[in-house]
Amino acid sequence: MDSFDLLIVGGGINGTAIARDAAGRGFSVLLVEKDDLASHTSSASSKLIHGGLRYLEQYEFKLVRESLRERQVMLATAPHIVRPLEFVLPDPPGGRPWWMIRLGLLLYDFLSRGDELPRSRGLGRKDNDYRAPLKPGRFRLGTYWDAWVDDARLVALNAVDAHERGAEIATRTELLSARRDGDLWVAQLSGGREVRASILVNAAGPWVAETLNQRLETEAESKVRLVKGSHILVPRLYEGDHAYILQQADGRVVFALPYGNRNLIGTTDIPVAAPEDATCTPEEVAYLCAAANAYFTRQVAPTEVSWSYAGIRALYDDGEKEAKDVTRDYRLELDDTPGPKLLSVFGGKITTARHLAREVLDKLEVGGFRFTRTAPLPGGDIDVAFNAALIPLALWMPEELVVRLARAYGTRVPMVVGNAVHLRDMGRHFGAGLYEREVRYLIDHEFAKTAEDVLWRRTKLGLHVTPEEAKDLAAWMANRVPNPASPR
Questions:
Q1: 313 and 331 share one domain
Q2: Can you give the C-alpha Rg of the chain in angstroms?
Q3: Which pTM does this prediction carry?
Q4: Given 268, 293, 320, which residue is the final one in a domain?
């Protein structure tokens, strides 16, 4: 029977960040995930690394400051998948008072002091590129900066780094049950595997309570609040690489984000009863279209939505009545039952996952060198020579493909391309610039086992391939990953 120092349940951003930190400190780690990495909440976010400007209204100053510090860490350690993003904040009639917005932006600047992003500023008549897409009106405009992230790739890269530091990453592996046996946990996993662990970390996200109650037969003091957030992808509403924050009459804010040649609109805050309720409803689609149409000259109809998704946020229940007001901070609960330790993670957000992981290990009194603040994620060790290294690829590879690979894999592009010197050397083309060498890399190094893993989580090429191409990829992978449900 295999034994580990830590058994981590959950392959989302929190679980993989904890696995990375623990493995890097020299501890033996097994992470189990019943589906694929980032299958649920962690690939259904607004794709932002941000401080949370609106959290200032809830006096969450500590959370905002911590998030802003983490934003700078992520920009430095994962520059290939995290990049600065400018936000435009229109001030509509009946919205928050302009003095409040300016005060909030100044406070945001103060809390982010020491980083390298530009400060906020008000926009004047000369800033027509920002004002032009908006409906005629007396909008006051301000701008500030946060960052965009490929959320699912962030999860995958944490898992890759954890694995390369010695952790075992077992996707399609479910924790069926676990019990205390002296100083160890004895856990039953799908596939008939049984393992022992000194510490069990429950980072199951929306399933954190179910894991406690049904798999571990225990309870926690903390409660979880399940809140659904939905997004829609629509044709371009404006030109440019900036984003807009759209205040709504119900007090919510909705993002309009650049997403290739389209715009991503989100998110909603809908209380739900179960994690399986992660479906973007027609009512949410209509709400998000209306949210955009209240601001932009270019109107969008629900029939123009090319993609929608929903994720369930497992928020720590702080007792707030409205879902939009529930804290986005996290709570770590250490079970005080005698025997091996059990720690459960309630809440959290992508931006603060690295800090959460460090706090988890500190709370568990797991020692070792703290390295994650400065150590790049795989492919993130980018320097001035990086662009020069891409020049040979540009001689035979389409520019669009070079850019996509660079932004996905960073300095690991040579591992993806191998010794190829022509497109025909990249192997079979599955459509939308996805070649066999890249798929093989994702299978061998990033735990991809199905076409869905490749098309919707390791890449977003599912938006561009045809149904026939996706089917061909699935058949090709089935011959090389014969049993996706088995542990890696």
A1: no
A2: 23
A3: 0.96
A4: 320
- Could you list the beta-strand ranges (E) of 260-404: 262-266, 270-271, 307-316, 330-334, 341-347
Residues linked to residue 177 through DSSP beta bridges, in sequence order: 188
DSSP character at residue 37: T
Residue type for position 85: L
Could you tell me if 315 and 227 are in contact, meaning their C-beta atoms sit under 8 angstroms apart? yes
Q: Which of 459, 436, 388, 445 minimizes the C-alpha distance to 415?
A: 445
Q: Taking a C-beta distance cutoff of 8 angstroms, is the pair 111, 61 a contact?
A: yes
How many C-beta atoms surround the C-beta of residue 47 within 10 A? 22
Q: What is the pLDDT of residue 91?
A: 87
Question: Residue 431: which residues within 8 A CB-CB, separation 6 or more?
Answer: 461, 464, 465, 466, 469, 473
> Is 51 domain-assigned?
no
Low-confidence ranges of the chain (pLDDT < 70): 138, 319-326, 482-488
465 has which bridge partners? none
Tokens describing residue 205: 């996200």
The answer as to whether 156 is a domain residue is: yes
pLDDT in tens, 345-402: 999 999 999 999 999 999 999 989 999 999 999 999 999 889 888 999 999 999 999 9
Contacts of 95 (CB under 8 A, 6+ apart): 247
**Omega of the bond leading into 267 within 30 degrees of 0 (cis):** yes
136 with 254, same domain: the answer is: yes
Tell whether 243 and 301 lie within a shared domain.
Answer: yes
Q: What six digits make up the tokens of 477?
A: 């992978």
Find, among 116, 102, 109, 104, the residue nearest to 72 by Cα.
116
Q: Which range marks the domain in which residue 229 is found? A: 77-148+225-320
Q: Which residues of 72-89 are buried (b: 16+ CB within 10 A; e: fewer)?
A: bbbbebbbbbbebbbbbb
Name the helix (H) or strand (E) containing 255.
strand 253-259
CB atoms within 10 A of CB 468: 9
Q: Are residues 207 and 233 in the same domain?
A: no
Task: Label the pairing between strands 243-247 and 253-259.
Answer: antiparallel
Q: What is the 3-state secondary structure (H, E, C) of 19-60?
A: HHHHHHCCCCEEEEECCCCCCCHHHCCCCEECCCHHHHHHCC
Residue 88's Cβ-side half-sphere holds a number of Cα atoms within 13 Å equal to: 26
- Same domain for 133 and 252, yes or no, is yes
Q: Do 90 and 116 fall into the same domain?
A: yes
> Is 332 in the same domain as 415?
no
C-alpha torsion angle, residues 325, 327, 328, 333 (rounded to 10): -150
Amino acid at 411: T
Report the domain count for the chain. 3
Q: For tokens 């946020």, what's the residue?
A: 313
Task: Tell me the per-residue pLDDT of 149-189, one tens digit each, with 9 for 90 and over.
Answer: 999 999 999 999 999 999 999 999 999 999 999 999 999 99
H or E segment to which residue 284 belongs: helix 282-293
Which sign, positive or negative, has the C-alpha torsion 238, 243, 247, 252? positive
One domain for residues 235 and 300 = yes
